[in-house]
Amino acid sequence: MSAILLHPDDNILVVTAAVAPGDLVAIDGAPIAMRSRVEVGHKIARAALVAGDTVIKYGAPIGSITAPADRGEHVHLHNMKSDYIATHMRDTLERSTS
Amino acid sequence: MISAWARADGRKGIRNVIAVAYLVECAHHVARKIVDKTDDPDVHLIGFPGCYPNSYADKVMKAIATHPNVGGLVILSLGCESFNREGLAAVVKASGRPVETLVIQENGGTAATIAAGMEAVARSKAIADAGARVAMAPSELVIGTICGGSDGTSGITANPAVGRAFDRFVAEGATCIFEETGELVGCENIIADRALTPELGAELVASIEKAERYYTILGFGSFAPGNAEGGLTTQEEKSMGAYSKSGSSPISGIVKPGDLPPSPGLYLLDVVPDGEPRFGFPNISDNAEIVELIACGAHINLFTTGRGSVVGSAISPVIKICANPETARKLAGDMDINAGRILEGNATIGAVGDEIYERTLAVAGGERSVSEELGHREFILTYKTFEPVGPACLPRSHAA
Question: Are the beta carbons of A82 and B344 separated by less than 8 Å?
Answer without folding.
Answer: no
